[in-house]
Design brief:
Mean pLDDT: 93
Radius of gyration: 17 Å
Bound molecules: fe (ii) ion
Number of domains: 1
Order of helices and strands: EHEHEHEEHEHEEEEEEEH
Strand content: 25-35%
CATH topology: Purple Acid Phosphatase, chain A, domain 2
CATH architecture: 4-Layer Sandwich
Structural class: alpha/beta
């Protein structure tokens, strides 16, 4: 089995950042021992160097390899320079046990909107022009609207064109963050997987801090949502070869985050 942990939006430096949540996520990740951790951005709150350094101190305690794309908060105050210096390249690709993962920077300095831009489409196609059991694309901004997040805004400006590029390139999963609400959409044969904020109380409605775990076993993919200190639920379960969908959480996702549900409270 290939296990990919997907964390997002830790927001170190925010008054809503909760160190205890991040510490717990680290403990759980180190127990899980995933093949890789993908972090889809908003490591910091304002892109300041000391926020990056504080994030790095947490990140260094995660035993698994970790790959990261920047979020809009990380690009504030020219923070993308600190990202390149302290975190790594803003665009990258890598292989983990037959899984191809490509990450791209969708942030624009001091804007909340997301954009990839047509000048990068050929690079994305090239990165995915390999044989892989599963091709995954990672960006910060949500590629499709996420229910339960209020007014739709700061989606990827070129979402339509990018989706077509990704579908054409054989991508089967997109990992995103930004909205702080976990959700899974299926469009054509792509699963668009949004993660919540793993360690902050920048929450919408009754959603809770959480992160996702993707498991690839043979032909089957399972996407779990995991609550620090709490349980986990299956967001989606499907077959790669036939496209058959065994399970996808819909209304339950909205219902079971209300306070009378038996899910962990802060
Ligand atoms: Fe965020
Ligand atoms: Fe964001």
């Amino acid at each position: 089995m290939v296990t990919i942990a997907h964390i997002s939006d830790p927001h170190v430096g925010s008054p809503y950042f909760v160190p205890n949540l991040m510490n717990r996520v680290i403990v759980e990740l180190n127990q899980l021992e995933p093949d890789i951790v993908v972090c889809t951005g908003d490591l910091t709150n304002e892109g300041y160097r000391n926020e990056y350094k504080n994030w790095v101190a947490y990140r260094e305690r995660i035993a698994a390899p970790i790959v990261t794309v920047p979020g809009n908060h990380d690009a504030r105050n020219v923070g993308y320079l600190h990202f390149e210096d302290l975190i790594g390249p803003r665009h990258w690709s890598m292989d983990v046990r037959g899984v191809r993962i490509v990450g791209a920077d969708s942030s624009e300095p001091d804007l909340n909107d997301g954009q990839i831009g047509r000048e990068r489409y050929d690079w994305i196609r090239e990165q995915f022009a390999v044989d892989a059991e599963l091709k995954i694309f990672a960006i910060h901004h949500h590629l499709l609207p996420v229910p339960g997040t209020g007014r739709e805004r700061s989606i990827v400006n070129d979402a339509g064109d990018l989706l077509e590029v990704l579908i054409d390139a054989g991508v089967r999963m997109v990992l995103t963050g930004h909205k702080h609400v976990p959700y899974v959409w299926r469009l054509e044969n792509i699963y668009i997987v949004n993660a919540g904020t793993c360690s902050s109380l920048r929450l919408r409605g009754y959603t809770k801090p959480c992160y996702n775990i993707v498991e690839l076993e043979g032909d089957e993919v399972k996407i779990h949502r995991k609550f620090p200190f709490g349980g986990q639920t299956v967001l989606a379960h499907f077959s790669l070869s036939s496209g058959e969908q065994y399970h996808r959480e819909l209304e339950a996702l909205m219902r079971d985050v209300r306070p009378n549900a038996s899910l962990p409270q802060e």
